[in-house]
Amino acid sequence: MSEDVLLRGRGLTRRYRAPKASLFERATTSVALEDADIDVREGSAVGIIGESGSGKSTLVRLLLALDVPTQGTVEFDGRPVDATAGARALHWLRRETGIVFQDPYESLDPRMSVGRIVGEPLWALGLAGDGSPGTAGRRDRVIEVLDDVGLEPEMASRFPHEFSGGQRQRIALARA
To answer: What domain range is 116 assigned to?
Structure first.
C-alpha cells in the first residue's frame, strides 16, 4: 500500500449567505465548514464522522468539486481541483472519484435496473467499451464491475427493491 497522498484538502471553508427577510435587513452568513484539512492516502479508506450539521457532507462536496469552497484548496493526485471549472474541465476528476451514500436505497433509482444504474456512469465517463446502450461492450463492462463487488451477472436485470441492504451497498459501490 502506497503512502502517497491521493486527495488533499487544505483550509476548506464554506459559508452560505442567508437570504434577507427585508430590504433593510443586514445580510447574514452561516458557516457550514471552517478551516478543515484532510489527507486521503492512496489505498486507504477514510470515514468522516460527526454530529448532524457538523459539515461532513459539505466537506465531501468540496473535495469532489460538487460545491465551491469559500476558502481553501483541493488537490487530487497532485493536481489542483478547480470547482468553478465546467463539467468538461472536471471530466478527469469524475473518472477517478465517486460517492457512495450511507443509505444506498435512497440513492438508487427504483425504476432503473441495476445494469442501467451501473452502466450509465461507465458510459458517461467513457469506461464502457463502445459505450452504446444495449451493446455487448457495455453489458460486458457492467458484468465485470458487478463481479468486482461480488454480485452475479444475472442481477443486472433486477431492480434495487429486490436486493438486501448489503447488496444495495455493493450496487452503490459498483456505480461509484
So the answer is: 104-175
**Closest to 62 in 3D by CA, of 89, 84, 87:** 84
Q: Are strands 71-76 and 5-18 parallel, antiparallel or unpaired?
A: antiparallel
Domain tally, the chain: 2
Q: CA 1, 90, 132 angle in degrees (round to 5)?
A: 90
pLDDT in tens, 33-57: 999 999 999 988 888 889 998 999 9
- Do both 72 and 21 map to the same domain? yes
pTM of the shown model: 0.71
**Neighbouring-strand partners of residue 46:** none
What is the rounded distance in angstroms from the CA atom of residue 37 to the CA atom of residue 48?
A: 12
Nearest Cα residue to 128 out of 116, 115, 142: 142
Cell of 114: 441495476
Residue type, 75: E
Q: Looking at the structure, do residues 74 and 119 belong to the same domain, yes or no?
A: no
List, in sequence order, every beta strand (DSSP E) within 45-165.
71-76, 79-80
| Sign, CA torsion 74/76/77/80 | negative
Q: Give the DSSP H or E segment for 146.
A: helix 136-148
